[in-house]
């Protein structure tokens, strides 16, 4: 039976006899980069709910359920799970609305308030951190993510097989990045804490933001979610504005005792090096989404991610060999940016 029919049957079991299924409107709400799909159901009394459809042979709902509880206990706004059928891969969730941060931020005047709330929510999640609860963001996982760049961006997207010199450059830079990433203090990491996964909710923190797509959360480097948020693949900010956002987070984090560097220079270096890891990973993922999954919309977001990566690699001598490699690949001149 098609999954849409299975989903409709499941919705019917939840709401009949109160609401006949033919009186319930079921419409696509969103899709993401995985095999999950989301549907918005509108009941005859105009209440709305979200149904997550996660085919169990391809997706596992258990992490979503567990992390939703974990983040709720931390005091942030995540969907409440109203009903679940984990065997079929269906969850019925509260609806956090239709306005993403990405949409709301088209009015740039909203940025200070929205990012202030997002920063406070992130601090709340990080304060709740403890080891042994979420999977470790360890060398193996970080390394597999870095490998997406040569495997999918270089080989599949550019049609380029790295020669020995290029491979040596990648190996040396990847080793330097991993050494930095793995020595950073550890906290809960959402892993995709950005403008498409944050919902703009009326009011301020803790109501705002609504937080989605957290099922891949791990226990890892303290700067990771900050890079997702402030070097977002889908929206760009002037670097002085980015620094302002980041300094405000850093001050709040220090005030509540989170394990960030006491020297902002050291903290910012960790942030940038973590960013390079994420940007290499994202370029690989976007290439994979296009070449393997036929999702071409992500191609338009690659240039911004590459600009972030090139800017960081230009700043640090250990990463400049990658900058020169990117110069060759992209045939672009080096950018001028703040130096640290």
Detailed description of the structure:
- By secondary structure, this protein is of the alpha+beta class.
- The chain has two domains: 3-94, 2-Layer Sandwich (Phosphorylase Kinase, domain 1); 101-330, Aminoglycoside phosphotransferase (APH), C-terminal lobe (Aminoglycoside 3'-phosphotransferase, Chain: A, domain 2).
- Helix content is 48%, strand content 12%.
- It has eleven helices and nine strands.
- It has a five-stranded antiparallel sheet with strand order 1-2-3-5-4, with helices on one face. Strands 6-9 form a two-stranded antiparallel sheet. Strands 7-8 form a two-stranded antiparallel ribbon.
- Strand 1 and strand 2 (37-42) form a beta hairpin.
- Helix 5 runs antiparallel to helix 6 and helix 6 crosses helix 9 (264-291).
- It is globular, with a radius of gyration of 21 Å.
Please provide a brief summary of the model.
The chain is of the alpha+beta class. It has helices spanning 3-15, 62-74, 101-104, 111-127, 139-157, 164-183, 224-230, 239-255, 264-291, 302-315, 320-330; strands at residues 25-31, 37-42, 48-53, 81-85, 90-94, 186-189, 198-199, 210-211, 218-221.
Number of domains: 2
Share of helix among residues?
Answer: 40-55%
Which fold does the CATH topology of the largest domain refer to? Aminoglycoside 3'-phosphotransferase, Chain: A, domain 2
Shape call = globular
CATH superfamily of the largest domain: Aminoglycoside phosphotransferase (APH), C-terminal lobe
Radius of gyration: 21 Å
Percentage of residues in DSSP E strands:
5-15%
Identify the strand order in the major beta sheet. 1-2-3-5-4
Mean pLDDT: 94
In the predicted model, the low-confidence regions spanning at least 5 consecutive residues are 332-340
Write the CATH architecture name of the largest domain.
Alpha-Beta Complex
